[in-house]
Each structure stands twice: as C-alpha cells, then as structure tokens.
Design a protein that fits this description.
With about 325 residues, the protein is mainly α. The protein has a domain of about 220 residues. The chain contains 15 helices and no strands. Helix 5 packs antiparallel against helix 11. The longest helix has 27 residues. It is globular, with a radius of gyration of 19 Å.
C-alpha cells in the first residue's frame, strides 16, 4: 500500500477526482474541469515532441482540429458511436501527422518549426473555405455526446457534466500513463538522445529521422484524441481549432507549467491556463493579452516554468 501511494498517478487521480468540488470555490464549474483534462492531454502529447524529442512545433493545433473534425464528420456521416468517433479522430490526426512528419522531419531548428506553422495554416484555410465538408467559417454545430457503451453493460449517458468529466478523467489517465511508459522506455531514451545530440545518435546507429517521425506521429494521434474530446465538450467544431493561436496556447501551457523539466508540467500549465482564461475572460475580452503578460513574467523569473522552481530549489539545497 505504501508503494502504491508513492505513485504520482495515484495522487493525480485523487486530485482530479475532487477537482469538480474545488472549482466552485473560485467560481468554477464541472465543465471547466473537463476542459482542463482535455488541454492537459493535448499538452502532454505536444510535450512528447518538444521536451523529449527536442522538436518545437508551432502548428500542433492542426492535429487537434483534425481530430475534432473527424469526430464530427463521423457522427454526421457514419455513426454516432462514441468509440468509433474517437478512433476516427485519432486515425485522421495520425494519418496527416504521418504525412506532414515524413516531409519535415529531416529539417531541424527554426526550419522545422516554421514548416509546422505553414502546414497548420494550410489546414486552417482548408477548413475555413471548404463549406460543403467543414461548414466553413460557421463550423459544424448541433452535435451531441453519444452515450458510453461497454460490452455487457447498459449504455451510460454523457450529457450530464459530471458523467462526461469522469469519462474524460478515465481517458486522460490512460493517455498519461501510456505517455509516461513511452518516455521511460528504450524508445524514449533514444528520443532524448536525439534531443541532446542528434549527430551522436546517428553515429550510434539510430535512424534519427525515423524516430522523429514516429514521435511526431504519436504526438499527432494524442492531439487528435484531445481534439475529439474537445468536440464532445463543446458539441461543435470551428476552424479556429486549427489556427496558429491555438498552437501558441499549447506552447504557452507546456512551457509555463514546466514541461521542459518535469513530465507533469503540462498538466499544471493546462490548469493555470484554463482557470485564468475563465477568470480573466469574465471581466475583459482582452484576456489573452493579460495572460500573455503573466506568461512573460513567469518565463523571465523562472525560464524552466513553474515546476522548474522546485527543481532549482532542490538543487540549491543539495
């Protein structure tokens, strides 16, 4: 039992289990807790690329939005089955991430980042203009949350905010544990070696382009799943999901929380971002400006992010 309680995932699960009851203390609500989980999932997928592979993507919202659109089109054109919609969101995002990754993973540094931004804006303009499929500027609305169906059990409605939150929590926990296992596997060690020195990793015999492509594709799949979950949260999807501003948000979330030095940094950053967005947005439409100033202040004082402060304190004590 002691060993079990030492696992960070246990405390993470217990915290999120009570989070919907804590948010009303700061004028929050259950749907806000679901949004935190979804953004945290998106940021964890992005952080696999940024902090473990050393690739800075400025266009990761493309796969977030593709996952949302794939989920919506599956519900409208094929079936309203929940699992099929989520699967199609992951497959579509992974497919396009694989194609984009195959084109750009030979590039490094700012060239890689700018190419991700260019592809993201290309997908954004396609979604913005393709009225017959994506709904154009008005997006796809009027969607609903399909019930949760498991073999041998009665269907569970997800229309209630708490029911959807518990489902989002279960998906988030699975994704978080899988990413944790991935980055602490031999595959994850190769990714970190590429981040430290790609040339030396090549000399050791690793096909670094292939490993970067796999990391990029997996990151895209996780982002697509987060996008599909966000669609269920909002019951609609719009082209802005793919815009560069959304890509900037996930970068800010990851760095602000301390994802570059701590696996759980993106989760903290997602919580801070969503809560501040809701709190500041209630008073002014210029919430992004204020949040940007807060982000600048944090990075100037703690370049490693908020969780980097604890690492710095620990180093000083040693």
């Amino acid at each position: 039992m002691r060993r079990f309680l030492k696992l960070p995932f246990v405390w993470m699960f217990l915290f999120f289990l009570v989070l919907p009851y804590l948010l009303p203390l700061i004028k929050g609500y259950t749907a806000l807790a679901s949004e935190i989980l979804i953004y945290a999932m998106f940021a964890l997928g992005f952080n696999l690329l940024l902090s473990y592979t050393g690739l800075a993507s400025f266009g990761h919202a493309a796969f977030f939005g593709i996952g949302a659109y794939a989920m919506a089109l599956t519900q409208l054109k094929l079936s309203d089955d929940l699992w099929l919609g989520l699967l199609m969101g992951m497959v579509a995002a992974g497919f396009f991430a694989g194609i984009v990754g195959a084109i750009i993973c030979r590039k490094r540094g700012i060239y890689f980042s700018l190419l991700t931004l260019a592809f993201s804006q290309m997908f954004f303009f396609i979604a913005f203009r393709w009225d017959e499929v994506t709904g154009g500027e008005t997006g796809l609305t009027g969607l609903r949350r399909p019930p949760l169906r498991l073999p041998g059990l009665p269907a569970v409605s997800l229309t209630e905010p708490m029911a959807f939150y518990l489902f989002a929590l279960a998906v988030f926990m699975v994704v978080m544990i899988l990413i944790w296992r991935l980055v602490h596997s031999p595959f994850g060690s190769v990714l970190q070696s590429i981040k430290q020195n790609e040339v030396r990793a090549k000399y050791l015999g690793y096909n670094t382009v292939f490993y970067k492509w796999v990391s990029f594709t997996i990151s895209g799949i996780i982002s697509g799943l987060a996008g599909a979950m966000f669609l269920l949260q909002q019951d609609a999807v719009f082209p802005t999901y793919l815009n560069w501003t959304e890509s900037g948000n996930v970068v800010m979330v990851t760095i602000m929380g301390g994802g570059v030095v701590n696996f759980f940094g993106p989760i903290l950053g997602a919580g801070i971002f969503v809560i501040l967005q809701n709190a500041i947005g209630a008073y002014t439409e210029h919430w992004l400006l204020i949040l940007g100033l807060i982000f600048i202040a944090i990075i100037m004082v703690i370049p490693e992010g908020i969780l980097g402060l604890f690492k710095r304190t620990k180093t000083v004590q040693q």
